[in-house]
Every structure is written in C-alpha cells, then in structure tokens.
Design brief:
This protein is mostly beta strands. The protein has two helices and 23 strands. The chain is globular.
Length: about 270
C-alpha cells in the first residue's frame, strides 16, 4: 500500500513538472504580412492576441480578407485603436475564437468578418466608437438601429431582437443555432442571407411593417415549419434561392403558413 502511494506521488510530481516546463518554455509566435497598411496574412499560435497599430514600423489601418483565417489557437482578439476596417472574412474559420474587442476607431466591419467562427460568443465594442456598439455581445450599428452580427457560439434557442431595431443586416444570423428569432414591429428591412443556413430554425414571424426582404434570407433552413407574414411585406423575387420566396412557401398573402409535407406549405389563418 505504501509502495502504491509512493508511485502515485512520483507520477503526480512528474506530471506537474512536465506541465510547468511546458508553461515556461511555451513561446508565442506571431508572423504578420502587411501591405498598404493592411494585414493580409497572419500565422500565430497565440491564445490571446492583440492586433497592433504598427508592425515593424509599418502603420496598420485594416485587417484584410481572410487575414486570420483557419486559425485554431486564438481564444480572444483585441484590435488596437487606429485600425479602422475589418474586411471580408477577416477571421474566417477561427475555430476557437470566443471574444473580440473592437476599438473606437473602427468604421467598417464586413458582415462576413466572423463567418465560420463556431465558438464566438461575444463581440465587445469600445464605448467611444461612434459607428458600432455591442449589446449583450451582439454587434449593432450605434443606436441599435442596425443589427450587424449575432455570434453563432452564443448558444440559445431563441433571441429577442431589441425593440427599435430597424434593419437586420446581411448574414446577421448566418448559421445561428437559434430555433426562433423574435422580430420587433420596428424592423423594416431584412437583408440578403440574414438567417441563411440556420438549420435549427423552426418558426419565424415577419412583422407587418417589414418593407423589404432580401435574397436567400432563409435558404438552407430545412427545419423551418411555420412562417407568419405581415400585411405589407415586400419580398424580392429570389429570396429563397432559385425560386421566389412566394413559390417556395406557397405564400399568397398575409397570414400563417405551416409545412405539411415535403416542401408543401398550407395557409392556416389570417394574421391577427
């Protein structure tokens, strides 16, 4: 018995020593490529990364297309003040990224900047930023009039879009885990691909004040079984893909439509 305890103690000491050695010898590596004040590529094993305003004496004002793509190390990213743009798919497929800090200098964030970041739960925006703001981790334009991006790692079954929001942006809920999103009556526009490939989504209600529904808004949403349409909704011809939204869901006016079979929809009631 004493021998077993001694062996266990030795094993624990060796494990602790190995862990301590790994911590001490771990070296964070960051390799940037900068062109015309834009980070065009970055290779790093950093877990917590601060993207600098200057690299090797070169000023940085933008993060380019797919600059940080396919990274599997980063957990959090802080973007330094002075950087103004996050271009298309800047952080595409950063599989472990959980949190992003946006500086007050940011004036443009592409709607696809964080595409395919399944662990992302929180986007925080500097209080002094005049273009963007964060509300419970969700990215909005200042004043919460435009919803820009809902982090897909923010796991929940439903989300109440704040009252006063007027625009749901392009790909705002792309591949979200939601079963439903409650859209307030203040929303007047839903842009292209806003809820696309949200495969869990089962129900959606489009408010009567909605004046524009973009293309492919619900494409790829195979679980969708109930749609409620407001009285004044205007819908683009291609909003469901190769066929029109009206054709795909057999919609012919305001009311509630329920999926009754394979690609078959039935009108059930007038909208209250």
């Amino acid at each position: 018995m004493k021998y077993l305890k001694l062996v266990t103690l030795i094993v624990l000491i060796l494990c602790a020593a190995a862990l301590l050695y790994a911590i001490i010898t771990y070296e964070t590596k960051v390799d940037y490529t900068v062109l015309n004040e834009t980070i065009t590529a970055c290779t790093t094993n950093a877990r917590k990364l601060v993207v600098p305003r200057s690299i090797d004496g070169n000023s940085v004002t933008a993060i380019g297309n797919r600059a940080f793509s396919d990274n599997s190390s980063m957990i959090s990213v802080e973007i330094s003040d002075g950087i103004t743009e996050l271009k298309d798919e800047s952080f595409y497929n950063c599989s472990t990224l959980r949190e992003v800090y946006i500086p007050k200098s940011a004036v443009y964030i592409s709607p696809t900047a964080f595409t395919e970041c399944p662990a992302l739960t929180k986007i925080e925006v500097d209080f002094d930023n005049r273009i963007y703001e964060s509300f419970n981790g969700v990215l909005f334009k200042a004043g919460k009039k435009d919803l820009v991006y809902f982090p897909v790692g923010f796991i929940r079954s439903e989300y109440y879009i704040p009252h006063g929001t007027m625009i749901i942006g392009e790909k705002a809920f792309y591949k979200s885990p939601l079963y439903t999103a409650y859209i307030p009556p203040t929303v007047t526009r839903i842009e292209n691909y806003a809820f696309a490939d949200s495969t869990n989504m089962e129900t959606i209600s489009l408010p009567a004040n909605l004046m524009y529904l973009g293309e492919n808004v619900f494409t790829g949403n195979g679980s969708l079984h109930t749609i409620t349409i407001g009285s004044d909704v205007e819908i683009q011809e291609n909003s469901a893909g190769s066929m029109s939204f009206y054709e795909q869901y057999q919609i012919h006016g305001a009311g509630t439509y329920v999926k009754t079979g394979n690609d078959q929809w039935e009108f059930t009631s007038d909208k209250d």
